[in-house]
Amino acid sequence: MPTTPRPVKTVLASVTAAVLLAAAAATPAHAQSPPLRDLADQQGLRMGAAVASHLLDDADYRRTAATEFNSVTHENDLKWESVQPQPGQYSWSGADRLVEFAEQNGQQIHGHTLVWHSQLPSWVENGSFTPAELTQVMEDHIDTTMGRYRGQIQTWDVVNEPIGDDAQFRNSVFHRVLGEDFIAQSLHMARAADPEATLFINDYNIDGINAKSDAYYELAQDLLAQGAPLDGIGLQGHLISGQLPQDIQQNIQRFADLGLEVMITELDIRMTMPVTQQKLEQQARDYTQVMDACLAVSGCSGVTVWGVTDAHSWVPDHFTGEGAALPIDDDYEAKPAYWSIHEALGGDGQNGPDDPGPGEPGTGTCEVAYDFTSQWGQGAVVEVTVHNGSGSAVQDWSLTWERPSGEQISSAWNSLIQQSGTTVTAGPVEWNRSIAPGGQVSFGFQTTHAGAPSVPGGFSLGSESCTIR
Ligand code: 9MR
Predict the structure, then answer these.
(1) Which CATH number covers residue 98?
(2) Ligand 1 neighbours by CB, cut-off 6 Å
(3) What is the pLDDT of residues 292-310, one digit of tens each?
(4) DSSP 125-162
């Protein structure tokens, strides 16, 4: 065990110049394209994705969800049938998992959804309630669900899809028992459950100006006039490539002019399969149109795509012969649509020569501190701190360096360390798998060395060279 601690600075001073030279030489010459979330942060925009908690077991999925998006929406895990399948029996595991993930990765969360006719357990959908009973059931559900995540989920789809394609109130248990007032009641309950949350109603086929979005425009005005706490409107954005409404921006603007926040909450732009280059280019133009429409209106606060990649999209299961609706393909490769979003957000819209693809590690700026916290004879204890200076989390990090000659690493903590020849690879343990944007992880190990201990000449986090501080 270490016996004689010595000041770290003395040792570091002797190697600082050499280390800085080595780090500078190892810095890649090209500028990497920032991930979407960094660009969105610069625009003050939420750039989100629908995420399925169970898919977070997959490292590529997890990494892409964390790296590319600054906001997430539970695709299914927060719906009534998931959280309260039986009266009073709540089940939070899926919902909690994504909330934890988002917190680890510095992401906002859009809560989807509280009061919806679909994915509603049969005890609610087919229950025979008096108005007072149903009001109590809704209040319990809203209060318990929003209360659990108070301060963690910033925005909520309080009521989802209350109006049908015929622009009339949809036939649901809520409307049958309570009439259209169920919408205002739900909003009041939500405000009481979390006074800080931003409260939305949300629907599809209301992206452009049409009879259904007109019905929402009237509904929003009615709700506001009667003092219901409506803060925002979600335009889902389930669109068909080449057939986008041309007045999306005007539609966003008219809701924003009512003082409402507007978000594109579930964007996907599907095409008829198979994919061709021409279709991908059309889709890229379509994504540009939606992004530009949102960015042009100051009240439009975000765009969320409905799935992390094409492999996770609901589209192929619901529309025979259609698919490829998202900006990242089945193999986690950026599609032209990805680069059109990138460009709309102020990026260069193209990959650099050696850039990683979406979600690949090493898209940020890393810094490494390598300190000898104690030394004795031919031994030392080293503490390594890896700082993630990018705007995105680094998942399942991997730090590599060349071991100085004559050195042996004998034991490690807070990291799993592998050595192959002189190459050392440090990776995470269960509790430090993610390095949050602006965050850091530290780990340590013990070494023996033949002469004086020295700091390695360079470190790489994933494919990116790190600065040594
Ligand atoms: O993407 C969701 C899919 O996995 C579910 O099977 C489906 C069930 O209705 O819901 C999908 O998400 C929907 C969202 O919750 C509300 N707007 C429409 C979305 C696509 O159907």
Answers:
(1) 3.20.20.80
(2) 75-76, 118-119, 204, 236, 266, 314
(3) 999 999 999 999 999 999 9
(4) HT----HHHHHHHHHHHHHHHHHHTTTT--EEEEEE--
